[in-house]
Amino acid sequence: MPIQCDYHMHTPLCKHAAGPMEAYVERGIELGLKEIGFSDHNPLPDGRGANVRMAEEELDYYVNRVQELQLQYRGKIDVKLGIELDFIEGLEDYLAAQIARYPWDYIIGSCHYFDNACQIGTWTRQFPGTPDQQWVRYCEQVKKLARSGLCDIIAHLDVVKRSTKQPTSVGLDAITGALEEIARTGVCMEINTSGYRHSELNSPQPYPNLAFVEMALKLGIPLTVNSDSHAPQQVGTMFPTIENFLHVRGCRQLCRFDQRQRMTYDL
Ligand SMILES: [Zn+2]
Ligand SMILES: [Zn+2]
Fold it and tell me: What's the pTM?
């Protein structure tokens, strides 16, 4: 069976995605997906990272819109309610309270920032330190996210490569350590195909690189494949390639989610 679910869609509410939500869903139907899920960037308090996420007062509207689409497309495709949650140390209670307020199907956890004020991006080229320090610090944060229990899916592992800084052996060890911790906690990880669209990467690869996907398979990490679409035509980016990659390596099951319960379907 082909990949059936794409759980990582953004909306214009985050200010850097385009197209009506219906257009994402219609594209999912066109591609033959069984499930499509929205997971726009979550609100954060005190205007943190406000330029790339919905405002607190828009969260109700966002949830309502996804629920409307669930009804509108019933019988054609299952529309899922998700959110991309920024993991920020010190804000765990705020994040837990935000999650508790709505009937999410899944939470995608991301490490986009190093600092509590959301000023230093994890894949910034201006990171104040060496590339090794950047990779190590990022991977430490991913491990904390995995342990936090706040999310169901770990987003775009190895996104630091978007800074164009490739990991040396120190960075590679750090990523391996993060994968081992993800495996230990049992949380699901996404293969995020937006990397195939990011021209700053020097070779087209998903997040994480396919070599790490292979490692994840060996470690038994539950996987899902997501496009991280910021425009409707990006839905299902490179899914046939990933499908083939997984199939050749004997991966026969991927994860799906419903009301934060994880299930599998056959690939
Ligand atoms: Zn985004
Ligand atoms: Zn995203």
Answer: 0.97
Q: Count of domains in the chain?
A: 1
CATH number for the domain that contains residue 203: 3.20.20.140
Give the C-alpha separation, 117 to 45, whole Å: 10
Residue 23, both tokens: 């257009």
Range of the domain at 262: 5-266
Find all residues with CB under 8 Å of 199, minimum gap 6, and list them. Answer: none
Cis peptide bond N-terminal to 208, omega within 30? yes
Burial of 197-227, coded b for 16+ CB within 10 Å and e otherwise, reads beeebeeebbbbbbebbebbeeeebbbbbbb
Residue with token string 């019988």: 75
Tell me the per-residue pLDDT of 1-34, one tens digit each, with 9 for 90 and over.
Answer: 799 999 999 999 999 999 999 999 999 999 999 9
Interval 185-218: pLDDT, tens: 999 999 999 999 999 998 899 999 999 999 999 9
Instruction: Give residue 48 CA to ligand 1 midpoint distance, Å.
Output: 15
**Which whole-number Å values give the CA distances from 6 to 18, 80, 186, 242, in the listed order?**
17, 10, 21, 13
Residue corresponding to tokens 């994860």: 255
Distance 250 CA to ligand 1 centre (A): 32
Which ligand is located closest to the Cα atom of residue 110?
2
